[in-house]
Amino acid sequence: MNEHKKIQLKDYRPFAFIVDHVDLIFDIREDHTRVTSKLKMRKDPAWADETTPLVLNKGKFDIISVVAGDMVLLPGEYKSDDETFTLAATPDVFELEIANILKPDENTALEGLYRSGSILCTQCEAQGFRNITPYSDRPDVMAPFSCTIVADKTRYPILLSNGNPVKSGDLDDNRHFAVWEDPFKKPCYLFALVAGDLAVLEDRFTTSSGRDVALKIYSEKENIALCSHAMTSLKQAMAWDEKRFGREYDLDLYQIVAINDFNAGAMENKGLNIFNAKYVLADPQTATDDDFMGIQGVIAHEYFHNWTGNRITLKNWFQLSLKEGLTVFRDQEFSSDMNSRPVKRIIDVKNLMAAQFPEDSGPMTHPVRPDSYIKMDNFYTMTVYEKGAEVIRMIYQLLGQDLFRQGMDLYFEKFDGMAVTLEDFVGVMETVSGRNLDQFFLWYTQSGTPEISMTRQYNDNTGSLSLTFTQSTSPDRNQSEKKPFHIPVRISLINRAGETVKQEALYELTQETHTFKFENVSADIYPSVFREFTAPVRLSTDFSDQDLAFLMARDTDPFNQWRAAQTLFINEIKNLVTAIRTGRAMTVSSGLIQAFSLALEDRKKDRAFLSKALALPLETEIKDHFEIIDVEAIHQARTFLKQTLAKNLESELKTVYEICRPAPPDDISGAAMADRSLKNLCLAYLGCVPDKGNQALVLKQFENAGNMTDEFAAFKILSHMTPEMRDSACQAFYNKWQARTLVIDKWFSVQAQSRLKDTLDQVKQLTTHKNFTMANPNKVRALIFAFAMNNPIHFHRADGQGYEFVAERILALDKINHQTAARLCACFNLWKRYDENRRILMKRQLETMAGQKTLSKNLYEIVSRALE
């Protein structure tokens, strides 16, 4: 591998020039786009003198003219390569005009200006603007932008950019133009442009101060009818942000555009959000309940960025969690208020445990604020986003809702229009609370997941209960010794009747070991600890399985009920894995079956909660509980447990299925979604047993479903039954939905995750299917990612063919789209935790990738870290 230089946080220096205004002109032609940037600039006397050169970031494109002041510069009077544009000397105040040619049709990396179908669009975060025009491509260089777009009126009737439209008109040769001005200073990563033949859904929102805001959602014409849920979600988010955080929208126009080809979920460009179509388009026939929930959350997330990310942005990219972690916290709170708060909390924590905890223990482990990077794209991680949100949540708990809101108000007041740091954010929280958060700041600078053990000791003589908490964090590549974290923990005490005998209170761990004593309590008290998951830690306790069964049924915190159930499942699977390894017969404890039965028959329980509590952890989650991952044993143990529960509780499962079945198919209320989630969980249990009656029940739901949620749930179950049932269902599903690209992504995903023996061969064949293309990230995620990340029994085949197939796809992708390739390569990150044979095979593929001379910076960083 060619080595690449690391960017270090300690080396940060402000840009030596101030940009006072940016004027962009895009002249869109048939096979190219001419971009002209006009920059008004001046030296920053604090960082520049007469000898300071102007160095701008630049991509791989041709410069056709440079004008400095009134002088046209010859090529020898400036330097330009594939990474930088340099002027050796400049006056203190000057104007610089650069014209260059882009080929958006050839831009498969989907950074900068590129084509998605018939639409031209941009993606500039993190460092894509340099692929549009030479510029200081960093978040702390902020300026007001204007943008003029000129294009063919027939092919591109809609011309959009940031801010407000100020002028438009017709030109000769069937061409037209539009001029946009953004009144707010912004970094270049928030720039956006869209040109295409689009339909629009329009609505309006009146802010709390009485301003009228026009709302517009654009999509391809055939999809515009699928945008209404996104519009409803946007208006909900706008109203919520005013009520919860006092934040009004600041422009007269807010626009969203749905794009089919997009590397991420969405982008918060000021006033013009560009979205992956997956997070805009939905109706009950084509989208699942999870899709509806995802759209609501992502729409809100990007809208909330207007204040936490746009109005206040980042001093440097190391501070990424300042906008992302904070905004994830805000969208989680929004979704909790719009839906079931306990269920939302379970979903978020399950996601954290399944993906971020392994990230913390793998080669890509890094603090919420990284110390260095080679390619910033690689640090849009679960650690920055989801763990970053948990850090914000801990601050929220330490201060309480009122003080946290005061801190947010001060943050907006003090730093509006500025590029700031995590220290600035935590500092305002210290100011309003009077607390010292120095130790707490370790959550931002120290990597790893703290492991907390809790033990109980009851004193019969004094009637006191002592809870002792011990924390430790494993050393890693970032720090060889870990300091104790400042960890909030919510505790309540519950008696055998399920009654609260001590109200919930917040306690704080600041040392390696801390004991809390509770006086005058009886011996049959159960502590409910880390309620609502008060901190992102791994928790072990001295609870027996009988204790866990009690907490599963009686804990007054729904999250802890869910955690108790999941811990029971994990304990049972561990026992089954031990039985497999030692050659003993597998059995499932009667206590677990009884606890499952009692929960299933509890008609008072929230059905959405039950669908989460009674779902077995996935194999990808179970692996995190083993030091050495035994792929076959985990798969065999989980399958046996699921089938045993289904066989013992068949009648109860069928009863609950029938109780939940009447939910109207087009009803997307919380109650209807809850019914469907529990119904489909019961169906998944019933369908895992090779019984003709249960198979017929699954097939009946698949053929008669009135919405995508029920159809897709049955389709997934059928994909695991027999090759004949899978193939028949796949053909029927494809025939029905082949014209809907997002639904076909589901079709690819189901086949990629099938547990049937021929799955790898099926996936290889699907890479040649007419609906699949490596150029579209959604298609790659639906097929290759789903196989590599979510089908361990086939990706980790003992013969290594799964590894070889995915490694080949990664290298092919790296030539097309380095961001997607690097993210896919994460499937090899935990190679050292598998058995010796798999370690050798996975390392061999990593070394093969490392041996390529033309790896992108993105893929180089992932592969080199994995091999360290």
TrEMBL record:
Residues 34-190 form the Aminopeptidase N-like N-terminal domain. The keyword Nucleotide-binding does not apply. GO terms for biological process: proteolysis. Pfam families: DUF3458, DUF3458_C, Peptidase_M1, Peptidase_M1_N. Transmembrane segments: none annotated. Residues 230-441 form the Peptidase M1 membrane alanine aminopeptidase domain. It catalyses: Release of an N-terminal amino acid, Xaa-|-Yaa- from a peptide, amide or arylamide. Xaa is preferably Ala, but may be most amino acids including Pro (slow action). When a terminal hydrophobic residue is followed by a prolyl residue, the two may be released as an intact Xaa-Pro dipeptide. It is an enzyme of class 3 (hydrolase). Keywords: Aminopeptidase, Hydrolase, Metal-binding, Metalloprotease, Protease, Zinc. It comes from the Bacteria. Residues 448-541 form the Peptidase M1 alanyl aminopeptidase Ig-like fold domain. InterPro entries: Aminopeptidase_N-like_N, Aminopeptidase_N-like_N_sf, PepN_Ig-like_sf, Peptidase_M1, Peptidase_M1_dom, Peptidase_M1_pepN, Peptidase_M1_pepN_C, Peptidase_M1_pepN_C_sf. One of its GO terms (molecular function) is metallopeptidase activity. Its cofactor is Zn(2+). Residues 545-868 form the Peptidase M1 alanyl aminopeptidase C-terminal domain. Its EC number is 3.4.11.2. SUPFAM superfamilies: Leukotriene A4 hydrolase N-terminal domain, Metalloproteases ('zincins'), catalytic domain. Belongs to the peptidase M1 family. Aminopeptidase N is involved in the degradation of intracellular peptides generated by protein breakdown during normal growth as well as in response to nutrient starvation. This is Aminopeptidase N. It comes from Desulfobacter postgatei 2ac9.
